[in-house]
């Protein structure tokens, strides 16, 4: 059974959510900036599909109340920019025999299935805020950032500020939803799992940047 939210002081909750939204907005902007500079996409494709699906669904299908709906519009716009970078630069990340039709079909299927899974989670659990899906795909993103770092074996498309701002945005969101759902053990597990992988990624990326001769905190 999905736990019912407990009352939270509105000013505190709104402040935490605004802070989280600002950090996530900076994360998206820096992914776009780094991707443009490095001529590569900066978000793992499975996480990108899930993000696009979540933002579209909770902007248009099960629209959030304002002002969160406006935030969803903004994030969707940023993710469309990241999608463009993936479609433009992503094919060279795949093996030579990976044809263009298969590349585009792979992305389309990822987008379709992500959308259906998120929508069905909302319908089946009657949870139309999307927090279970959001934290679940956040964990997916955290794991995949580490995988992307090892797969590329370089720091292209990545920076410690992207890693840091993602982590900070998630921490603030986690605190907010812990206040609302203090007895949700699943959400609590997701908070700690995401934080653990985000810390690991931040340190791995910092070390890799140093190994490649970069000053980690001077490379945005």
Q: Short summary of the structure?
A:
It is found in: Membrane. This protein is mainly alpha-helical. The protein has 7 helices and no strands.
Essential attributes:
220 residues, mainly alpha, 7 helices, 75% helix, 0% strand, globular, transmembrane, PaxB-like
Characterization of this structure:
This protein is mainly α. The chain has helices spanning 10-38, 45-61, 68-89, 100-125, 131-152, 160-180, 185-211. The chain has one domain (10-218). Helices cover 75% and strands 0% of the residues. The longest helix is centred in the N-terminal third of the chain and has 29 residues, at 10-38. 33% of the residues are buried.
Write down the secondary-structure element order.
Answer: HHHHHHH
Which residue ranges are poorly predicted, with pLDDT under 50 across at least 5 consecutive positions?
none
Structural class, by secondary structure, is mainly alpha
Shape: globular
What percentage of amino acids are in beta strands? under 5%
Write down the Rg: 17 Å
The share of residues in helices is over 70%
- Number of structural units classed as domains: 1
Quaternary assembly? single chain
Total of DSSP H or I helical runs spanning 4+ residues: 7
* Number of DSSP E strands: 0
For the terminal residues, how far apart are their CA atoms? 43 Å
Q: How is the biggest beta sheet arranged?
A: none
Output mean pLDDT.
95
GO molecular function: lyase activity
Keywords: Membrane, Transmembrane, Transmembrane helix
Protein name: Integral membrane protein
Membrane topology: Multi-pass membrane protein
């Amino acid at each position: 059974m999905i736990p019912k939210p407990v009352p939270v002081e509105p000013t505190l909750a709104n402040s935490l959510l605004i802070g989280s939204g600002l950090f996530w907005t900076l994360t998206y902007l820096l992914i776009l900036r780094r991707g443009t500079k490095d001529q590569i996409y900066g978000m793992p494709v499975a996480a990108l599909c899930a993000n696009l699906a979540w933002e579209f669904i909770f902007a248009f299908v099960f629209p959030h109340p304002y002002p969160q709906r406006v935030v969803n519009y903004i994030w969707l716009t940023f993710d469309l920019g990241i999608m463009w970078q993936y479609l433009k630069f992503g094919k060279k990340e795949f093996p030579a025999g990976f044809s263009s039709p298969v590349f585009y079909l792979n992305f389309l299927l990822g987008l379709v299935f992500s959308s259906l899974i998120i929508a069905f989670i909302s319908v089946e659990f009657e949870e139309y805020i999307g927090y279970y899906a959001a934290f679940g795909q956040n964990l997916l993103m955290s794991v995949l950032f580490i995988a992307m770092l090892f797969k590329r074996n370089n720091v292209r498309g990545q920076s410690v500020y992207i890693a840091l701002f993602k982590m900070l945005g998630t921490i603030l969101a986690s605190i907010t939803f812990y206040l609302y759902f203090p007895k949700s053990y699943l959400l609590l597990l997701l908070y700690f799992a995401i934080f653990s992988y985000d810390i690991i990624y931040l340190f791995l990326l910092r070390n890799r940047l140093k190994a490649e001769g970069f000053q980690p905190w001077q490379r945005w």
